[in-house]
From TrEMBL:
UniProt-recorded Gene Ontology molecular function terms: ADP binding
Protein name: NB-ARC domain-containing protein
Keywords for the protein's UniProt record, in alphabetical order: Nucleotide-binding, Plant defense, Repeat
Residue ranges of every copy of the Disease resistance N-terminal domain listed in the record: 7-65
Originating organism: Saponaria officinalis
Amino acid sequence: MGDIDGAIQIVLQTLEAMVSAEVSSHTDLENDVNPIQNELQNILGYLMNAEERAERNDAARNWIELYILREDSSMESTIKSLHENESITAEARDRFIFDNVKSGDINLTPNIKCLLNSNKLGSKILITTRYEDVARAWLNDGTTNGIYKTKAWELFYINTFQRSFGCCPEQLEKLAHGIVKKCGGLPPVITPVGSLLSDKEDDLSEWSKVRRSLGFSLYANHQLSGINKNFMQNYYDVPFYIKQYFFVLWLFPRGYPISGMRLIRLWIAEGFIRESSGSLTLEVAAEYMNELINMSMVEVISKDSSGKLRTLGVDELSFCIILSKKGSFGKDNSRRLSIYKNYGSNNVPNLDNITKRGLSIRNLFVEYVTSTIMVHVFNKTFLKSIGLLKVFDFSNAPIDHIPGEIGMLLNLHYLSLRNTRISRLPRSIAKLENLQTLDFKQTFITELPKEFKELHKLRHLLGYYFNNDGFLDPRCMKINGVNIPEGVLRECLELQKLNWVTKLRTLTQLRKLGFMGLKLNEGEAMCSVINEMKYLQLFDVFSKGKSENIDLMNVTSPPLMLKRLYLNGPLVSLPTWIYELHSLVKIRLRWSNLQEHLKIARHGFQKLKVLHLLDLHPLKSLIISEGGLPLLDEMSVEESEHLEVPSTIKYLSTVTKLNFHNMPSHFTDRILPGKFHFSIVKHIPSVLFHNKDLKGNLQTFTLR
């Protein structure tokens, strides 16, 4: 125990010196320091008697000795020391605590697990980490987001309502739930926040204040400074080359769900992403995004049915603390400006100031704003003053045209007109030679100007329009494409995304491709284009009409990276090359007019998660061999009136959602509870029937 004696002496000397210095320098704080001294004496008394207790208590001895070992900051050397000192772990049931385990230590997981198995006495290991890959190495499902909601409430109530024995007053219940939600299920946050509110049990206004400004309270309140320090340490640990991405995250309002692909395109436009080691910019950006998610610096908010990330965000606590640390954010010298709904009138002076001072704005967001703001934004003098602008996003703005002066923004890399009433692009857009992304989804633009051919650096062209004509059923939407005059995209060799176009030439870098109005005699040319697109990940095609066949038989070199395949139109036959696409996660077949029997082989589509079979009128039987579709999560069948109930659905053990749309009663009645085929679907958690009533309104019923 000699090492322990030495450690105790160091603790004694250090703490005594700190307390003495505090008292001598702040004589008026004696009453505040005395409780600390009393608590310190209790702790020191415990340590001084450690040796005596260690002889009687194996757990105490092991705790002390493990503490000495952990003084070495290297986790690897600590584990090595534990294995070398088998006496510590061989004869007692122990608890090992490894705090703030980093991603680089994940290779030590097997060695840590050996500690549990060394004596078979039920030892336990507690690990804290913010890295998801570390969590996945220990958890069966690989996911953890703080503690469970019920446990979070329980912990908060115990710390907050001590005087009322953990019971929350009715008038505070809604606020309490809101505060716990903001804490993100994190015990290090819940506990001190609960303690802070424990003296304010009856003060509704104080609770409301904490609820509104919890994130900034952590930054300003000395009682919560420890949480602030912990969160900021997470930020400081982020590699330097990734920190720059937060400049873009700050542009979105608190709690705003950010599209993952939108964020990646903004990173590219800002010049943050560079191609490296043969990887293209999209791939590099996706790796950085995954790294941020792995470090829990951003959180995934939603995914699509195939598991692809849709939206993400920054938790409120991190957002507020980092924003507070960012001293220059929102000031006159900022290079990035965001104007969102409810903040419009306050930002008119900011726009005027930019015009007067000629500030070097690089990034301008104006979303859900008033027409007054847009008058300022499209003013010729203002556009002249932002000549260095790289990103210009006025999605959801109340505008129906773009002024020709937009062509003055020669440095523009990213332009978004999404969800506006704009019906045509000005010819001056040809001057934007550095433009990489043009997003005009959900606008009324139906044709690109001939001058578009000058945009040689264009990478992402997004331009389709959904119109559901008042129907509640999203599958009834009409989709309008964009006509591209001959030769317009011939020089756009860097184009990587092109959605819903009626004419196309060879663009080998495309990741997403959509055809509308395809004719039978155009099938061969389309196949030759697909043969060159080795990076293609989504392919979506609509035939000219329900009677116009789609001929895909001439694809000889299918894009093996393809993940989503949507075929909307009669097929001559199901192309055999589809079975070579081992990366497919989603397939949609609509109006396919396939033969009466569709069979999925034993090892077919091993990664497929979503299967939609829509309007397959001749189809009579669907046969899924055992072992086929092993990862399928969602399946939909629509208006296939001759289809018999597929008995092989019973093999789909992973399906969680099964949808039937407008199927005849002789089909649906057979799978109701108590009917002959109910056993086929009873293992599926959600079985839904969607049908239209006499008025055309969509009605949804559940099996259970």
